[in-house]
């Protein structure tokens, strides 16, 4: 699904991602964890071209992001990746001027040129799937954070993505609302969706992920199965991080 | 007072032209302003420069000068415009610059996450702009646009110098006919004030209607 070769990303002088190479097979659920400022979110945002990379290549589903490609081709490849990739943001980023169901329908109408009726049907089904069937006509501001994030997941799923990216999806939520979002994500993982999740929810990562990427200072420090990572971290950096998060 | 009432139909006709010029210039000003704002934010270097120079010139010169240039100045190049047409053009181009500043500020106050969310679902930048950013920006733009429009209503009085018989010139004609000043000028002051107030009230209504979410 994803193949990354020597990915580099700098903001000016600051090197945020240093030579990352890895691949992610279909249906794998990958949790990216690590201290803040380690480049996790930047890494995720490179995968669908929200950040322009400085070096290396990223291939998603056969579409390649490479700085060597001409601008036109690069844009087309990124556009192709985005059509097959859903993304969920920390701040939800729902469209405040559109109702819940319109939020989910929007890309179907604009990108897939679908008729309103057909788009509405798909959106309704997805909203029931995330447990928000009765909120169709509400506006985002009338929903709780957890509900908004579930709408955002439905919005991403509407395009029938082959890959879902989650950028700290529960970090902006009140603690009691985290569970409902994680439950939707867990269902998605069980349905076989390929997922890359940047998260601080260690229990969720342990529970649902097939693989942990531990990042620090722009490098993937550990790449392991959850059990071995959490019970037997290899590096001092990871040991220290896990000690710190478990102190709560 | 009686002479004002006797001549009220004439003044109302002037007020009609004032309103007409305001609405027509606003309409074209909105289009020019929106395009200019987009050119300034999303355009290439060339478009950005053109838009910036345009806004700078309009904001840096008196509207009266702009009006006489369009009406009298263009005659030198064989372009003879009717007074009303010249008024529409000069005022649309004038207000377009101010509208573009209002829109630019409004577009920039839509959070970046909105565009990101839209393009992440596969929309192009242009689709995201049209479907997601601009509808929200319009809401942010309404208070500054409202001020611009009320300003425009008053600015139309300047086209009296190119012989458009709008409200200001209607009063001037009556003054030169009757040789009394105060009643007519006071009357049109009241009429401008009423029109501005109604405009402001309408804008408040629109603002309220748009802030349902």
UniProtKB/TrEMBL annotation, chain A:
It holds the Pfam family ABC_tran. Residues 2-242 form the ABC transporter domain. Its main location: membrane. It is found in: Cell membrane. It is a peripheral membrane protein. SMART domains: AAA. Keywords: Amino-acid transport, ATP-binding, Cell membrane, Membrane, Nucleotide-binding, Transport. GO terms for cellular component: plasma membrane. This is Amino acid ABC transporter ATP-binding protein. It comes from Lysinibacillus composti. The lineage of its organism: Bacteria, Bacillati, Bacillota, Bacilli, Bacillales.
UniProtKB/TrEMBL annotation, chain B:
GO terms for cellular component: ATP-binding cassette (ABC) transporter complex. Residues 15-203 form the ABC transmembrane type-1 domain. SUPFAM superfamilies: MetI-like (SSF161098). The keyword Membrane applies. It is found in: Cell membrane. It is a multi-pass membrane protein. This is Amino acid ABC transporter permease. The keyword Coiled coil does not apply. One of its GO terms (molecular function) is L-cystine transmembrane transporter activity. It comes from Lysinibacillus composti. The chain crosses the membrane at residues 15-41, 53-74, 178-203.
